[in-house]
Amino acid sequence: MEFYRYVLMKNPLTLVGCCIVFLMAAVAILAPVLATHDPVAINMTEKLKAPGAGHFFGTDEMGRDIFSRIIYGSRYSLGVGISIVLVAALVGTALGSTVGYIGGRTDQIAMGIMDVILSFPSLVLAMALAAALGPSLFNAMLAVSLVKIPVYVRLVRGQVLSLKEKQYVKAARSFGSSTGWVICKHILPNCTSPVLIQVTLGIGEAILIAASLSFIGLGAQPPAPEWGAMINTARTYILDQWWYATFPGLSIFITVMGFNLLGDGVRDILDPRSKNKPGAIKMTALLSVKNLTVDLPTGRKTARVLHGVSFDIKPGEVLGLVGESGSGKSVTALSILQLLPGGKGGISGGSICFKEQNLIDKTPQEMRKIRGKDISMIFQEPMTSLNPAFTIGKQIMDVILAHNNISKREAKEHALDMLGRVQIPDPARTFASYPHQLSGGMRQRVMIAGALSCGPGLLIADEPTTALDVTIQAQVLRLIKEATMQAGASVLLITHDLGVVAQICARVAVMYAGEIVEIGDVNETLLSPRHPYTRALLETVPELTPGYRKKLASIPGSVPDVFARISGCRFNDRCSVKKDICLAQKPQLVCVNGNHKVACWT
Ligand SMILES: Nc1ncnc2c1ncn2[C@@H]1O[C@H](COP(=O)(O)OP(=O)(O)OP(=O)(O)O)[C@@H](O)[C@H]1O
């Protein structure tokens, strides 16, 4: 019902998509009735005839009727597109749910392999696989299915990671249910919407890739009336017999467009949050900082403390921001919330887009509404962030009441619920306590409860465990990860500790002297660091290097003064592998592998 109302009233393009897909299906089913000729029957006396009464779309070089071949070709296209997507979705869902549920090393290895596959363009990888398997339609379909499996693995695994933390899943596990049962009964039914959206959007792409493989001779083989293969043979006649390539080309175009329009409609209905956000299904950035420059008054002069910082955080992602003291991590965080001295006055260039809105364009009133509600922050020392004069309960309730139109009683219930969620043993007692009556670890839990109380999309945690006991640090880090995952929030975790990054972050950005010098997935960046500064930082963390026996290293020199005039790379005076160009020209952040980027000439 919802679908019909949506299609008819709100999105006529979805209706167009529906009609095309329906028509395609009808043509494929009724092909023997609709076709005017045998699609493979050769008749050399009729060869290369222009469209006319006998042959609506003309004939090819063997005298075969192109109209009938197009009609039968719809069977190939539909069959190929649907089969590829079904195989990829089934295998991907099974794999993604299993590795996501098992977690640990299995998950890491599986996702590492998926990331490698995803780092290649689909078409190129499909071509390589199809060529290796040998030219045939079945092999082409197999190749495209294999290439598309990682998309579903990633999608389902992401869902499973958050679903497996839900209370009902934990309860099912505590009842002794088997892994397979928990996955099939409690987890997979909740993953159907994103998978369905991906399936509908994926059919068009699968048809296109399979047709491209046939076009280069790796897919359907002559005389099969497959559209891509038809265009392949039509190439020789493209100048004189326009109809030969035009009709199969148009058929591919209309079919792919139909599936894409339908897919967009399905996505808008099943996931309204992604509506009007092109590419949201591909996890576009929740926060996108681009070329951010910040100038701050220091004494009588103004110093440039950020020199064009750029990074993205995807929904649900934990991004670590690391670097030595003075590298600009806190200034980056404070710029996002416009909490720098003078508000956004210090921001001299760039953009900070949160949910596709540039925060730099917001008024102070608008920013006040965003802080705590959409983006919240926790600091190193919770004692200084909590007011000693008020109880914990009052302080959390104040945040909740400032952003929600609810009664005090509801706010109290919510505050107690949040304290329970951050695993505070006796929420009611903590609610009535003053900050000084709690331990450092408990205070930080309270801060996390308060920060997440209004369901922010992004939590900025600035050195959240530095002031805590070593024994408590791991607990609080785990809590940040679990609580934000449950709430579906992303995290920008600022730390100087790469060990912390390795524990909880998915990606890491390394900052030096007001710039990001390296950014990428945690595993890749920490195991194969490309920037000499990242390598030097890693050498200061012996436990990240198995078998490391050396004395704890330190990086010679220090972060340059904000007034220092540096030409070339800002790390050049401390770099042990610098070259001439490093002194003359500033390196840009460029891709070295997938989403691993580095700014270095060496
Ligand atoms: N309010 C301010 N006014 C002027 N300069 C500032 C201000 N805050 C920070 N800076 C300067 O900006 C640079 C980056 O500081 P920032 O605090 O962001 O570093 P950081 O990487 O967070 O260090 P730490 O790990 O010690 O917090 C430093 O040189 C610092 O002196």
From TrEMBL:
Entry-linked CDD domains: ABC_NikE_OppD_transporters, TM_PBP2
Source domain of life: Bacteria
Keyword Transmembrane helix: yes
Keyword Membrane: yes
One GO cellular component, as annotated: plasma membrane
Span of domain ABC transporter: 287-538
Topology of this chain in the membrane: Multi-pass membrane protein; Peripheral membrane protein
Transmembrane segment boundaries: 12-35, 78-102, 109-131, 195-221, 241-263
Domain ABC transmembrane type-1: 78-263
Sorted UniProt keywords: ATP-binding, Cell inner membrane, Cell membrane, Membrane, Nucleotide-binding, Translocase, Transmembrane, Transmembrane helix, Transport
Compartment(s) of residence: Cell membrane; Membrane
One biological process term in Gene Ontology: transmembrane transport
MF (Gene Ontology): ATP binding; ATP hydrolysis activity
Principal location listed in the UniProt entry: membrane
SUPFAM superfamilies for this protein: MetI-like (SSF161098), P-loop containing nucleoside triphosphate hydrolases (SSF52540)
Record-stated family: Belongs to the ABC transporter superfamily. Belongs to the binding-protein-dependent transport system permease family.
Record-given protein name: Peptide ABC transporter permease
Organism: Desulforamulus profundi
